Amino acid sequence: MVVETNLSDAEVDRIFRALADATRRDIVERVLTGEQSVSALADRYDMSFAAVQKHVAVLERAGLVTKQNRGRERLVRGNPDAIRRVQALLDRYERLWRARIDRLDALLAEPEPPSPPAPGQE
Amino acid sequence: MVVETNLSDAEVDRIFRALADATRRDIVERVLTGEQSVSALADRYDMSFAAVQKHVAVLERAGLVTKQNRGRERLVRGNPDAIRRVQALLDRYERLWRARIDRLDALLAEPEPPSPPAPGQE
DNA sequence: TTAACGTACAACCAAATGGTTGTAGAAACT
DNA sequence: AGTTTCTACAACCATTTGGTTGTACGTTAA
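^ inputs. structure came back:
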């Protein structure tokens, strides 16, 4: 499965920043397990309703959660696409590192010492 | 391959916060591809040396890069372990979401309509 | 209709962030 | 020795962040 990675720097900024807070990560876990209203979420944390509301807003701006109106409630649910996009980013980082290790391994396997060889004139 | 996930909230905070900046993500890419001195990195960005130095310090505190002394230079290199740990975190999130989808699918597959059944008194 | 609930939003505050300049020290070059 | 290079770090500043309280409004319940 190929995941789209067309994310601007600012979008990636918002996603990582949103995940850089334990309360927000906990909210993401809860609403991935099952959707919950903002006040149901707020009951679980030792802070004001408005503070939790702000955290949800940060997650929403980052695209990590969506809100849906039901009566007077706002149901918050997780957005798995955003999570996959971040995973794709980190996969890319790991591939870059792996390519570097492979290059170093190739160098170590060479019989030649670190003399710059001016290649193509063997 | 099983990746250790014994990270405190504060450590995860630092990792995500470190990645929530385009300059720092670019630095991570560069030093994963190959180690570079701080001043070599600073030449590539339109900001002061001290600013780049701060960015490297943020990455180092998050464990995403390490620094090694070579003469008067500090060689910065990426730490792939940290990247794998974040991937493991996101994998966990995605598994949570998948479990939720499976549950919803199971509900939809049930023949019963959404009548709250007062279970055990059929 | 009135009261209670769930939410939105503004105003405010302390602390952290991301940048700057300046000073200073250790290592390398002439 | 003197100078340049690379780094470290302090001080400062504007903006953002993460929390608070208070007010207002739509929705549900009595």
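The helical segments of chain B are 9-19, 22-33, 38-42, 49-61, 80-109. The CA atoms of residues 39 and 49 of chain B lie 7 Å apart.
thumbs up if we can close this ticket
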